[in-house]
Design goal:
The chain has 296 residues and is an all-alpha fold. The protein has a domain at 2-18 and 107-295: Hypothetical protein af1432 (Orthogonal Bundle). It has 17 helices and no strands. The protein has helices at residues 2-18, 24-33, 40-48, 51-61, 75-82, 84-100, 111-132, 137-146, 149-157, 159-172, 176-183, 188-198, 203-211, 223-239, 256-264, 273-278, 284-295. α3 (40-48) packs across α5. The protein is globular and about 55 Å long.
Length: 296
C-alpha cells in the first residue's frame, strides 16, 4: 500500500503541474482587477478576446439565477449591471469548469451530483452571508462553488481507487477526506488549495479550498469567510446532496464553522438553523439553473 500511495502522490503532483493553465482571459482579468484604476472598457476588451467567455457572461447574466427584468445583449451592459467583481467571478467559474471538464469517454465519478452539491454550497453561503450581514455575497457564492475542485483532480488521476474511497465513506461512515488520506495519501482540500495557487486565483480561493474542513487552521483574516463556506457545505450535504457517506450526526452548533461565525455575528445564535435549511426549497430552481449553465 505504501508503494501505491507514493505512486499516487507522484501522479497527483504531476496532475497539478500539467493541469490546463487558467484561460488567458481570466489571467488578464485578474491582473486588471488588481489595478485600482481599471475601468469597464478595459475589462470589456479583455473579455471580448474570448468569444466563448463573452457568451458565457451573457448566458449567466440572462439566466433565471439573476432574474433581470430584461435581456442583456452586450458585455459592457452586463458589467454595468452586475459590477466588475461579479462579472470576473462568473468568468472564473466558467473557466474553472471548462478546465476541469473530462476528456471524451473518460471515466469519472458522478459529476452532475458533484456540481449540484457545489452550486448548492455557493447559494447557501450567499444566503448565510445576507442573513448574518457579514462577508461579500457576490464573492462568497463563487468560493462555495469551487471549494471542492480537489475531488475532481483526485478522481481524474486515480479513478478506480477514488471509487473505493467514496464507497469506503459509506461502508464505514467516515469523512471523505479521512478515506482519501488513508487510500491515496492526500485529501481533496489540500489538492484544491494547490490548484487555486497554480491558477493564481485570489488567495481567498486557495484558503477556502484548503481550510473548509479545518476552519481553526485558516489564517485569521480569512477565517470568517472560510467558516461561511464550511457551514454552507455541511448544510448542503444535509439539505441537498452530500458526497460520500459522512452525512450523519451533524450538530451545526458544535462545529468549528458555527463557533467562528458566532464570534463574527452573534445573530447566528438566534437563527432557527433547521428552519433555515428546510426553507431552502426555493433555491432548488437556482441550483438546477446554475448547474445547467455551467454544463452547457
Amino acid at each position: 500500500m505504501n508503494c501505491v500511495i507514493e505512486n499516487l502522490a507522484d501522479k497527483v503532483e504531476r496532475a497539478i503541474n500539467y493541469l490546463p493553465p487558467i484561460p488567458i482571459v481570466m489571467d488578464e482579468l485578474l491582473k486588471a482587477l488588481n489595478n485600482e484604476d481599471v475601468d469597464i472598457n478595459t475589462l470589456v476588451k479583455i473579455i471580448s478576446k474570448d468569444p466563448s467567455m463573452s457568451m458565457n457572461v451573457l448566458k449567466v447574466v440572462n439566466s433565471a439565477f439573476y432574474r433581470l427584468p430584461y435581456q442583456v445583449s452586450a458585455v459592457d451592459h452586463a458589467l454595468r449591471l452586475l459590477g466588475l467583481k461579479e462579472i470576473t467571478m462568473i468568468c472564473i467559474a466558467c473557466g474553472v469548469y471548462k478546465a476541469l471538464a473530462p476528456s471524451y469517454n473518460a471515466q469519472t465519478f458522478n459529476l452532475d451530483e458533484f456540481w449540484k452539491h457545489s452550486v448548492a454550497t455557493g447559494i447557501i453561503a450567499k444566503r448565510l452571508c445576507k442573513e448574518l450581514k457579514i462577508g461579500d455575497q457576490d464573492i462568497v457564492y463563487f468560493l462555495g462553488l469551487l471549494h471542492d475542485v480537489g475531488k475532481v483532480i483526485l478522481d481524474r488521476v486515480a479513478h478506480d481507487i477514488y471509487a473505493i474511497v467514496i464507497q469506503t465513506t459509506y461502508d464505514e461512515s467516515i469523512p471523505l477526506r479521512e478515506a482519501e488520506k488513508r487510500l491515496i495519501g492526500e485529501s481533496h482540500d489540500a489538492i484544491g488549495g494547490l490548484i487555486m495557487k497554480k491558477w493564481r486565483l485570489p488567495p481567498i480561493f486557495s484558503r477556502v479550498a484548503q481550510y473548509h474542513h479545518a476552519v481553526p487552521d485558516a489564517p485569521e483574516e480569512d477565517r470568517t469567510i472560510v467558516a461561511m463556506v464550511s457551514l454552507a457545505d455541511q448544510m448542503a450535504r444535509v439539505r441537498f446532496l452530500g458526497f460520500g457517506g459522512d452525512m450523519s450526526g451533524i450538530v451545526f452548533s458544535d462545529t468549528d464553522a458555527f463557533r467562528e461565525l458566532e464570534t463574527a455575528s452573534p445573530a447566528i445564535t438566534e437563527m432557527d438553523i433547521v428552519k433555515f435549511i428546510w426553507d431552502l426549497e426555493e433555491v432548488d430552481e437556482e441550483v438546477i439553473e446554475m448547474e445547467r449553465l455551467l454544463s452547457s
